[in-house]
Amino acid sequence: MAVPKKKLSKSRRGMRRSHDAIKAVNVISCSYCGQPNTTHTVCKFCGKYSGKVAKSQN
């Protein structure tokens, strides 16, 4: 089995885990309907993305 030769310091452990933090979601308002929406996704309310209809309203 692989066993570490030396104990990892708290600093090194923290540096390794620095990318594991939960990041905040970037929320913008839709340019057509004004509803809050995440970036680079189709709007759930009006169905538009980048000026085009991406999803039909049912």
Radius of gyration: 22 Å
Largest sheet: 2 strands, antiparallel
Total count of helical runs of at least 4 residues: 1
β-strand amount = 15-25%
Give the low-confidence spans: none
Provide structural commentary:
There is one protein chain. This protein is an alpha+beta fold. The chain has a domain at 23-48. The chain is 12% helix and 17% strand. The chain is built from 1 helix and 4 strands, in the order H-E-E-E-E. The protein has one helix spanning 10-16, and strands at 27-29, 36-38, 48-49, 52-53. The strands form 2 sheets. A two-stranded antiparallel ribbon has the order 1-2. It has a two-stranded antiparallel sheet with strand order 3-4. The chain is rod-shaped and about 60 Å long.
